[in-house]
Write a structure and sequence with these properties.
Length: 493
């Protein structure tokens, strides 16, 4: 209704009442429309549950990441949808269990020039959804949702991309200047012999299980679709790109998806941080600590940039890891949880997870009910003013739960599947089958966070209840398979 019509209605009403007013008070000013918040997702790689200061680690200071928890909310029971990189990202980026579209394995660079495997174009990425809300969108860092042109972020809802497409990447290229590098023996440079293989004794060799990711193979640094050379330590480079993105877009709402490859292998610690962590004697642990400290300072730079641009009150910030830590490979600890990356035990799928939104959420709160990376999509969509259809996403808007408006658990259950392994959590209870021929186990996570007491024999009725829920849900899912093939993008007219 226009101000003119409001005035006219008020005048007639007063005249009818015989008040004979000839002047009217001005209409009450409408409250200013709330600005759409910026959305920032800070995604660490292979960071274990127990490695942050706010999670109990006293060995490696992480004050900047910890500040997100201090200024917002830390989740004790935060989960991702898969225990390793690519499927976990597919779940978060689509807001749906990746099992719904058969995405259950890592995308790897098997073919020169990339592969057509990746996130199906049928899925609406968070970038695409928020662009529909008027957002400028940027993806920086590790994508790992497909390397073909069709699956590049710039063709999947992001206005800007700087990063790489596949699993891992060297933080600095050969000959690894300015860092201490720890490599598997299978990835030795030509002519390398013995344990120390460089004149400055900065190249360390060690044995761990598994095959070295193809860090260099068909996995260039990209700006959009173009290959670029990157001389900077990669964590620093991604941070610089993120800061520039924030400054450039400070006058309009934006989504920044900043997916670091730290602390994923290869272990490469910059000299500055190796010196900072010099009190740690074990060389493998010291390199990991250097990488984590570097990551923390980088998060600090991003947060500082947001403050300098006077955006802190209106920015919704998430921090989480893509899966649990591979302890043997990196020393990345998941304590007090059992297991780690690749496993459906708590150590594989429960991760450090926190959120900050100063104008909307309380500070210094600890939330102890199960939440999921799936919820980032739904929460961001609702905050942007266009809630995601509930029948299209598996996540929920967390804000009412975090502010106390809505009681109870955000999820009736959470589900995981990896090849022959399956797990489901409902409330405080979790069932777990590790590989097809293993029996089902039952745990009460409120009393047994380390999954050390199997209660399947003493609580058969609870086991049966969760198995029924699990089988009912699985009827909605596709069978395990390779990531779907994707057709090339349509050429623009």
């Amino acid at each position: 209704m226009t101000d003119k019509r409001v005035y006219r209605r008020g005048f007639l009403k007063q005249a009818a009442l015989g008040l004979g007013a000839c002047m009217l008070a001005p209409a009450a000013a409408k409250p200013a429309k709330r600005r759409q918040p910026n959305i920032v997702i800070l995604f660490a790689d292979d960071l274990g549950y127990g490695e942050l200061g706010c999670q109990g680690n006293t060995q490696i200071p992480t004050p900047h990441i910890d500040s997100i928890a201090a200024n917002g909310i830390r989740f004790t029971d935060g989960y991702v949808t898969a225990p390793y990189c690519s499927p976990s990202r597919a779940g978060m980026m689509s807001g749906r269990y990746q099992h719904r579209f058969g995405y259950t394995i890592n995308v790897m660079p098997h073919v020169k020039g990339g592969t057509s495997d990746g996130l199906p174009r049928s899925e609406t990425t968070l970038g695409e959804y928020l662009k529909g809300c008027g957002y400028t969108t940027g993806a920086i860092g590790k994508w790992h949702l497909g390397a073909s042109e069709a699956l590049n972020p710039v063709n999947n809802g992001f206005d800007y991309f700087y990063g790489f497409a596949h699993e891992g990447h060297y933080f600095v290229p050969k000959p690894y200047k300015g860092v201490t590098t720890m490599l598997r023996k299978k990835s030795l440079p030509d002519g390398a012999k013995g344990r120390w293989t460089s004149p400055d004794r900065k190249l360390v060799l060690h044995d761990i299980l598994g095959n070295e990711p193809l860090y260099d193979l068909h996995n260039p640094i990209l700006r959009g679709l173009k290959t670029v050379e990157e001389p900077r330590y990669l964590t620093d480079a991604l941070t610089d790109e993120a800061a520039q993105f924030i400054k450039k877009n400070k006058s309009r709402p934006f989504l920044l998806y900043l997916a670091y490859n730290a602390v994923h292998s290869p272990l490469q610690g910059a000299d500055k941080y190796m010196k900072k962590m010099g009190g740690i004697k074990d060389i493998q642990r010291r390199i990991f600590a250097a990488m984590l400290s570097n990551l923390d300072d980088s998060v600090g730079t991003v947060l500082k940039t947001i403050r300098q641009c006077k955006l802190e009150e209106d920015t919704l910030i998430f921090f989480l890891s893509d899966n649990g830590g591979p302890t043997k490979e990196l020393t990345s600890s998941n304590l007090p949880l059992r297991g780690g990356k690749g496993s459906l035990t708590e150590g594989g799928v429960r991760i450090p997870f926190m959120v900050q939104w100063k104008s909307a959420l309380p500070s210094g709160k600890v939330y102890r009910r199960p939440v999921s990376s799936l919820d980032i999509y739904a929460t961001a969509a609702k905050a942007a003013g266009r809630p995601a259809p509930p029948n299209k996403v598996d996540g929920v808007d967390l804000i009412p739960y975090l502010t106390g408006v809505t009681k109870g658990d955000p999820h009736r259950y959470l589900y995981w599947r990896r090849r022959g392994s399956v797990a489901m959590r409902a409330g405080d209870w979790k069932i777990l089958k590790e590989r097809q021929k293993k029996p089902w186990r039952l745990y009460n996570l409120a009393e047994d966070i380390s999954e050390s007491k199997d209660l399947s024999a003493t609580r058969p009725e609870k086991l049966k209840e969760l198995l029924t829920k699990c089988k009912t849900f699985e009827r909605e899912l596709k069978s395990d398979q390779q990531p779907p093939k994707t057709k090339p993008p349509r050429k623009k007219a």
